[in-house]
Structures are given as C-alpha cells and as structure tokens.
Design brief:
CATH architecture of the largest domain: 2-Layer Sandwich
Number of helices: 9
Radius of gyration: 26 Å
CATH class of the largest domain: Alpha Beta
Protein name: Helix-turn-helix transcriptional regulator
CATH superfamily of the largest domain: GAF domain
Strand order of the largest sheet: 4-3-7-6-5
Largest sheet: 5 strands, antiparallel
Shape: elongated
Organism: Ruixingdingia sedimenti
Amino acid sequence: MNVLLDLTGPASTVASRPAAHDFTGVVEAIGTADLADRLLTFFAGFDGADHCALFELRGFEFTEIAAAEGADAAVVARSDLNVYEVKRQLSMVGNMGARVDVAMVPASDPMDPAAKRQRILICARRADAAYCIRVLRPAGAAALCDQGLGMLQQVANMLISVVSKHADLTLRRPNLTPALCSLEEIEDCMTSGTDLSKREGEVCARILYGLSSYGIALDLGIGKESVMTYRKRAYSRLGIGSQRELLMWYLAMWSKRQASRRPEEAAA
C-alpha cells in the first residue's frame, strides 16, 4: 500500500522540500513500537525536527504513548506541556477539529534565551479522549513558514486519527496472561462452554498449558496414542486443525467469559 501526501506547493516557493512525503511507513507502524520514529521522520520533512512525542488525555489522566528523538537531539524540557495546556488548546477548536499551534519553548539550557526551540503542537478530540502530537525543532532552526504550517493543518486530523488508533491498540491491549496461568481455569473454560468430553477437555487444557503429548499422557495416566486420539476428536468437534487455532479459539472464549463475569462482579 502506498500513501503519498503531496505537501509541497510550487517548486519556486519550497525548492528544498521533497516533492512528496511518503506516509506509508507511518500507517504501517500503527500499533508497533516504531510509530514515533516514523512520525519523527515524517515531520523532519518540514524543514527539520529532532523530537516527537505522542500523548493521550483521558479526563485528567495525561499519558505519554510514545516518543522518539534524533541522534543529535538536545535534552527535552518536558515542563512546557501539561493537562491544562492541552485543554486550553482544545478549547479553541470544535469537537472534531484539530488545533495546530506553534510556540517557542525552552531547550536544554533554560537560562540561555538563544536556546529556545520551536514547538509544534497538534491536538484534537476523539470519542471520550483527546490526543496530542508534540514536535520539537532544533534550537536555531528557521521558524516554520506559513506554507509549512498550512500543510500541517491539512493533515492534522489524519495524524491525530493515527495516534488514536495506535493508543487503542497499545494502551488498551487486553492482558491475556491470566488466561493461561491456571490449568484448572483452562479446564473449566474448555468443558463448560463446549460439547467436549471430560477427557477431550483435559487433553486440550494441557496442550494450552504447554505440556507435550508425552507429558499429558503421564499427567493423565493414559497412553500417548490415547492423547493423540482425544486431541483429534476435540479438534474435530471444535472445527479447528492446529494448536495455534486451538489457542485462538480458547482466548476468544476466555475473553468472552471474562466480559460476562464483570457485570456480575460489579453487582456483587
């Protein structure tokens, strides 16, 4: 998939800027540890950037999702951005609008006025949260021109949507570790919601628990050939054909079971 954003304008106006920014790498990095680095590369096309950080604001919980910086980037002064600053920026746009703000902030040496750096802040709301992209440009770099700012405003909503999707995939990724920690829990889940026999459920539970066919045979006091037979029957009943498919089937069932338990626990 190629996603090319034409962010240049007339060649005579921005002769030093590339003809197009390749956005493909940014899209492909959603949900991975590389997103901040890909965004930093993207923003570097706007006449330089050496730091990029992504934030989520949910209520008054302000979370840094990811960050990246160039090899020669100066120390970042983090005090310039907080909940109140983001809320102030958001108050200037509608519910689905994106705010692009450019300001000068302290660099590594706040006592040196010349060390200030240009900060680009992109903020927008999505559903019940707000998202922010902070980009810092090197101290001494020429200010972002009006044309560059206009280009950023054109893609601001799309960039925020990328960050929102990334947060959904990373911050709220379900913790499935408990699903495979208790053999008793696995057995109960395998047998209560299926038409597997007790022995078929026991064999499948031990496969999920990480035992080999020989280990299952020893644990259940049956022959290895019997283990293979019970496994084959169970796979046939469940409509699956591999251990990976068994794992995917079980995790889906376990997650559904946990979700159904939450209302009961809340009521109790």
